[in-house]
Design brief:
With 494 residues, the chain is of the alpha+beta class. The chain has helices at residues 15-31, 47-52, 98-107, 155-160, 162-168, 170-191, 233-241, 279-298, 327-334, 343-352, 363-374, 428-442, 448-454, 468-476; strands at residues 59-72, 75-82, 85-92, 113-122, 128-139, 196-197, 203-204, 216-219, 224-228, 246-254, 266-275, 302-306, 312-317, 323-326, 383-386, 408-413, 416-423, 461-467.
Length: 494
């Protein structure tokens, strides 16, 4: 039990009364000459480092949010917490001035940030603790914390007020700490292989590198429209023209399209380019990198996805080598005669297979729709889908033996594309034809500056994109992109 009721004595149920009660405590702190918003507080330990290097008798100065408290009269036990964990504190009326003890019992609440000073010791029950000799208010919480046991049950609140989710949900804290460390490890891993990290514009005069609808803006000083980038590809390739041989960018991309469990309009992508490599070498690179991340952070190549009750719903096996299969072979696995049909027959057959086919779809789009619905969405273990139709990837090099396909892989894991990789097209004449054809179909602009760069000579190269959000989802067992993005886009409250 708490030393003082966390609500007023009359136990009012209304939120306004609870907030008023906390404001009364705020006023008492201020009238007593205490700063309820604190200031600099020097520490000897973080809570994690104290637990890792614990020794009885160790002088301690640390801080955290009050996350639990147990009233035993003249003795008070309470926990302070931060992102990396919790630590028990022991407050006895004999060890501190009377005003310090009353400060805790009368004016502090769950959720308040405090600095503590004392000595490390072990309780009779064997719990490492801090014996408090000093207490400093760092920030008064005017609203209550989420329920300790149930956390934030409302997903709308979880995503809109992420701080409440992080306060109450250890799993969420673990996912976001792991995400940060994984991104740092990707950087280190690529740099160890001599890739140079670069930055390219987020504001682009011509949005290129992918077929997607951009967000539009306007630059007043230049008097011209700009677009938030949909991909950094065309700028990174300019660097290959300039003589860079291994480059990468961990970038934020923006696409003005739908929102779903696997799509967010703002997302993180890794793109990397390697002069004189090809799509197969880039596939090796991605396979090695993803397995490295799984082993380092998850401790296994077998990833379990669980439901809210902890039941395993899906198991993903990343054990190498990963499967590599041509696109057409996978389609033939659905219907062996697919490529023997006429376009009209393919359209009809797609409908028979239960795939929604739009009248506006071209023949290759009908096949792609069948691939996405009947193959991609049902492929959970890693599969490099290779040699896709030329129409799907206008920036990739055609296969030397079959000009109807390009030297490309699409890495499918967990039912979604995690990474595309190409042997990059470096023929400026063919590239112009491809981009002009795409622009004609989709009313996109041709990036003349990119084509000008290609005419100066770009070396053969392999390139990759890796969807970081989807990769983190797969590795951590999350089934919604909103669970791995700290602040996902949401519709404004009405």
């Amino acid at each position: 039990m708490d030393s003082q009721p966390q609500n007023p004595p009359a136990s009012p149920e209304s939120e306004s009364a609870l907030l008023a009660f906390r404001r009364e405590k705020l006023a008492k702190l201020e009238s007593g000459g205490l700063n309820p918003w604190g200031g600099r507080f020097d520490t000897t330990h973080t809570l994690a480092s104290l637990r890792a290097n614990f020794a009885e008798g160790l002088p301690v100065r640390a801080y955290g949010r009050i996350s639990a408290r147990r009233d035993m009269g003249k003795t008070q036990f309470f926990d302070i917490s931060d992102l990396e964990g919790r630590f028990q504190c022991f407050l006895n009326a004999k060890n501190v001035p009377e005003e310090t003890f009353k400060l805790f019992t009368d004016l502090l609440d769950m959720g308040d940030w405090v600095g503590v000073e004392g000595e490390a010791f072990v309780t009779k029950t064997g719990e490492p603790s801090i014996k408090i000799t000093g207490l400093t208010v760092l920030s008064k919480s005017l609203r209550p914390m989420p329920d300790k046991w149930h956390g934030v049950a409302d997903r709308e609140i979880k995503y809109r007020q992420r701080y409440l989710d992080l306060m109450s949900n250890q799993r969420s804290r673990e996912v976001f700490v792991m995400r940060s460390k994984m991104v740092a490890e990707i950087r280190r891993w690529l740099q160890d292989r001599d890739f140079l990290e670069v930055e390219t514009p987020m504001l682009q005069a011509v949005p290129g590198g992918a077929a997607a609808r951009p967000f539009e803006t306007y630059h007043n000083a230049l008097g011209q429209p700009f677009y938030l980038r949909i991909a950094p590809e065309l700028y990174l390739k300019r660097l290959l023209v300039g003589g860079f041989t291994k480059v990468f960018e961990l970038n934020r991309n923006f696409r003005n399209e739908g929102i779903s469990r696997r799509h967010n309009p703002e997302f993180t992508m890794l793109e990397a380019y390697w002069a004189c490599a090809d799509f197969e070498r880039m596939a090796d690179l991605v396979e090695e990198m993803v397995c490295h991340l799984a082993e380092k952070f998850i401790g296994t190549l077998v990833i379990e996805h669980k439901d809210d009750e902890g039941n395993v719903t899906r198991t993903i096996d990343l054990t190498r080598p990963w499967k590599r299969t041509p696109y057409r072979d996978l389609i033939r696995g659905v219907d062996a005669q697919w490529f023997d049909y006429t376009p009209e027959q393919r359209r009809a057959r797609g409908g028979e297979l239960g795939v929604e086919i739009s009248p506006a779809m071209e023949d290759y789009e009908v096949t792609q729709q069948v691939f996405e619905k009947l193959i991609e969405e049902k492929t959970f273990n890693p599969c490099f889908v290779t040699h896709v139709p030329t129409e799907l990837v206008p920036l990739a090099k055609q296969n030397a033996a079959d000009g109807t396909v390009v030297d490309v892989y699409e890495l499918i894991i967990n039912g979604v594309e995690i990474s595309p990789g190409y042997s990059e097209l470096n023929d400026p004449i063919v590239q112009r034809q491809r981009l002009e054809h795409q622009a004609g179909e989709e009313t996109q602009k041709v990036d003349e500056e990119f084509l000008l760069a290609l005419e100066h000579g770009m070396p053969p190269a392999g390139g990759i994109g890796v969807g970081i959000d989807r990769l983190i989802m797969m590795l951590t067992g999350c089934d919604s992109i909103r669970d791995v993005v700290l602040f996902p886009q949401l519709k404004a409250k009405e």
